[in-house]
Amino acid sequence: MKINQLQVFVTVAEEKSLRAAARCLNLTQPAVTRSVQELESDLGVVLMTRNVQGIELTEYGIALQTRAQQILEDLRRAREELDQIKNNLRGKVRVSATSTIALSLLPKALEQFQKSAPDAEMTFMEVKFPLAAQHLRDGSLDFAVSHVLPDMLGDDLISMPLFSTDFVVMARAGHPLAKARHLAELADAQWLSTVPSGGFQHSVMEAMFEHAALALPRRIIHCSSFAIALGLVTGTDSLVLFTRQLAESIAGLGLQQIPLEQAQPALEMSIIMRKGVLLTPVAQRFVECLQAVVKQ
User: Fold this and answer.
1) Three-state DSSP class for residue 266
2) What are the helix (H) ranges across the chain?
3) Domains and CATH numbers, the chain
4) Based on CB atoms within 10 Å of each CB, which residue in 116, 136, 202, 224 is the most buried?
5) Are 254 and 173 in contact (CB under 8 A)?
6) Which residues of 19-43 are buried (b: 16+ CB within 10 A; e: fewer)?
7) Cβ–Cβ contacts within 10 Å for residue 127, how many?
């Protein structure tokens, strides 16, 4: 099993086409086919089959794809780490961050980071945690900054707490329920959730209503992004749960908090990464900047 064979295999798996993979790798299609066949011969399994839709991975191919991506990304990190030692924190950092982090810690952390690593290439993503976890596992993310429940991490991911945050109920300015002080008064309202049913924010909402001995609201609209939820909560009578930091950062957008008398759930915002994988020096530096901003 050779590195160039893994690169060819991963590219074919991603492109789902031998011809497309050949174009991406600047190789001939016979060369791509031969590389895959040699890898299959070495491993003694069939990794992919061809059909009218293109390439389809077998169960062996699916298992190898994740491992191969990890190997290639770890190799990239090893090369970058040596280059960073030589060239003073040059390299790439890929981070997934929630809206709370993007609108609170991220600007100040980036400002600090760029003073010590001005030539580093930064990539930020905002994806739901299940997808972020997948990117962490295949090595395409260095780390994620998010709030997750412990049972969402699995055995291969670890978390480092950054700070604790609670959730508050937000509504448009002038909302007819703005004077409510008990969750029971909001039970019949329309609510927004930025995750599917069973996801993290939905679990927070469930815990909040369960703690108040109330049934979960019947009218919940699931939004695919923070921007959609923000548009709906500012333009309709919908209610939404935001972290306190996020609520404070968008308070000037025509929104107000409905201050309930009951304490709401508080959870840890954490840095999440693959267990047993060392961050490159430049990625570690960005983690330190995030931690420094929290302390400030």
Assistant:
1) strand
2) 3-15, 18-25, 29-43, 59-87, 99-102, 106-116, 129-138, 200-211, 226-235, 244-249, 281-295
3) 3-79 (1.10.10.10), 89-163+268-295 (3.40.190.10), 165-265 (3.40.190.10)
4) 136
5) yes
6) ebbbeebebeeeebbebbeebbeee
7) 16
| pLDDT for res 197 | 45
Crossing angle of helices 281-295 and 59-87, rounded to 10°: 80
Q: Are 272 and 150 in contact (CB under 8 A)?
A: no
Q: Given its phi and psi angles, is residue 179 left (phi above 0), alpha (psi -120 to 50 degrees) or beta?
A: alpha
Q: Residue 110: its pLDDT value, please?
A: 95
pTM over 0.70: no
Residue 195 neighbours by CB under 8 Å, 6+ apart: 128, 201, 202, 222
Beta bridge pairs of residue 159: 272
- Considering only CA atoms, which of 272, 201, 270 is closest in space to residue 240? 201
Kindly state the greatest CA–CA separation across the chain: 71
Between CA 186 and CA 13 the distance in angstroms is: 49
Distances in Å between the Cα of 172 and the Cα atoms of 108, 253, 257 are 28, 9, 9
Rounded to the nearest 10 degrees, the angle between the axes of helix 59-87 and helix 129-138 is 80
Strand partners of residue 242 = 168
pLDDT tens-digit readout, 197-246: 444 545 678 878 888 888 888 889 988 788 899 999 999 999 998 888 88
**Residues 162, 271: contact at Cβ < 8 Å?**
yes
**Residue 53: what are its φ and ψ, rounded to 5°?**
-80, -15
What is the CB neighbour count within 10 angstroms for residue 250?
17
Residue numbers in the chain where pLDDT is lower than 70: 80-81, 83-89, 149-150, 195-203, 265
Q: What is the per-residue pLDDT for 107?
A: 93
pLDDT at site 123 = 94
